[in-house]
Backbone:
């Protein structure tokens, strides 16, 4: 097996790489089983298939110089990279925990220290995979009230994301047993859409239908 060199992990910190890290934080998994390495993204087949196939895979294949293998059934679609290089890139350079990570993963310090334009792409990757956009249509509101909800069982990560949003002057609130980070109202959701935005059609279709 070819030895992984330090230069193999020193990819430029590009917008595409930051977005890929965000997707891994949201829906990803990486681990090794002896000398076998896997990095995986698992999403809803009907809701996320177009987003993965048309947006994420072309970009990640290019920056990683690897070709994703795709598996799917009626419910899920799974993107697999069988690569030691990708595994080490995530676990060593970006400190993404291997194995189960939902309660321990955080945005890497390298990205937190980077330009806001790069941080925004990591946030977008997280929100495209784990976020929800919807309108509260209860009678108490004069018109449908927009809400962006990020649901995670990882309070330290939610606090970290809340602080990151403030860099873009976006106010948010942690609610519901400290597992939901909510952005309320037209003013704040518009700031999110302008500075971070979505690429996943699952979210974009809801926004478009409301216009």
Residues:
């Amino acid at each position: 097996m070819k030895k992984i060199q330090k230069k193999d992990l020193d990819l430029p910190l590009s917008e595409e790489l930051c977005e890929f890290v965000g997707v891994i934080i949201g829906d990803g998994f990486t681990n090794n089983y002896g000398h076998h390495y896997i990095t995986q993204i698992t999403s809803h087949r009907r809701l996320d298939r177009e987003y993965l196939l048309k947006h994420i895979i072309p970009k990640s294949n290019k920056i990683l110089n690897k070709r994703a293998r795709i598996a799917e059934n009626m419910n899920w679609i799974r993107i697999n990279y069988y690569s030691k290089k990708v595994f080490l890139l995530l676990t060593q350079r970006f400190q993404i925990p291997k194995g189960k990570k939902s309660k321990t993963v955080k945005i890497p310090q390298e990205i937190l220290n980077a330009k806001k334009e790069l941080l925004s792409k990591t946030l977008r990757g997280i929100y495209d995979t784990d976020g929800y956009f919807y309108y509260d249509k209860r009678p108490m509101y004069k018109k449908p009230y927009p809400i962006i909800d990020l649901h995670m069982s990882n309070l330290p990560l939610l606090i970290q994301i809340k602080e990151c949003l403030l860099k873009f002057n976006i106010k948010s609130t942690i609610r519901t047993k400290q597992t939901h980070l909510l952005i309320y109202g037209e003013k704040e959701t518009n700031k999110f859409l302008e500075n971070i935005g979505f690429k996943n059609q699952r979210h974009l279709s809801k926004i478009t239908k409301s216009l």
User: Anything to note?
Assistant: DSSP finds nine helices and eight strands in the chain. The domain at 123-210 is CATH 3.10.28.10 (Endonuclease I-creI). Residues 45-64 form the longest helix (20 residues). The chain has two domains: 6-100, 123-210.
